[in-house]
Design the sequence.
């Protein structure tokens, strides 16, 4: 029983702290009341507004606290929250998440390996993801960075129709990298 009371009180404060004020939480003396169908019922006292809402088995919700006088609406608050959550879920479903995939190459990569990595990059770019192509220089390869730059430029040329480079190849310690993005994705 104690858990239920704690859970109920925690849930109510958590919702009311970040949501709209409803029913007894509204502290204004007078409010502009809007009915459940959107009709204007005029400026009334808060007690009268609550009575109107309660008589229709609805909640009184403060929708514009900054107005003079504050605007309240008689509505089914549970149904309203459900509709808002439903709209948010739909918006998240339609949202496209762009991931950054990484492909690692070496300076002395063979032709077949290069083509395989290129096919992977085409697939990633076709899915709408960005691709970071990285070359790690080992040992004496640091003296021949031009070879690594040529490999990256050849890789960029191989992805010509599928994506474009956001920046020129850049060196970061022992790594040289370039980021490719599909044509419809901005930085």
Sequence:
């Amino acid at each position: 029983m104690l858990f239920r009371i704690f859970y109920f009180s925690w849930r109510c404060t958590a919702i009311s702290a970040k949501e709209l004020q409803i029913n007894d939480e509204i502290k204004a003396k007078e409010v502009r009341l809007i009915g459940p169908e959107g009709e204007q019922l005029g400026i009334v006292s808060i007690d009268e507004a609550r009575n109107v809402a309660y008589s229709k088995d609805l909640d009184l919700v403060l929708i514009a606290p900054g107005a003079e006088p504050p605007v309240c609406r008689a509505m089914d608050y549970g149904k309203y929250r459900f509709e808002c959550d439903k709209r948010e879920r739909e918006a998240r479903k339609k949202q496209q998440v762009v991931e950054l995939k990484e492909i690692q190459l070496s300076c002395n990569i063979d032709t077949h390996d290069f083509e395989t990595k290129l096919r992977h990059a085409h697939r990633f770019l076709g899915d709408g993801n960005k691709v970071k192509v990285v070359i790690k220089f080992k040992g004496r390869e640091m003296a021949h960075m031009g070879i690594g730059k040529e490999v990256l430029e050849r890789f960029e040329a191989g992805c010509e129709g599928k994506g474009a480079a956001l920046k020129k190849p850049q060196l970061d310690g022992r790594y040289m990298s370039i980021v490719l993005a599909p044509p419809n994705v901005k930085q």
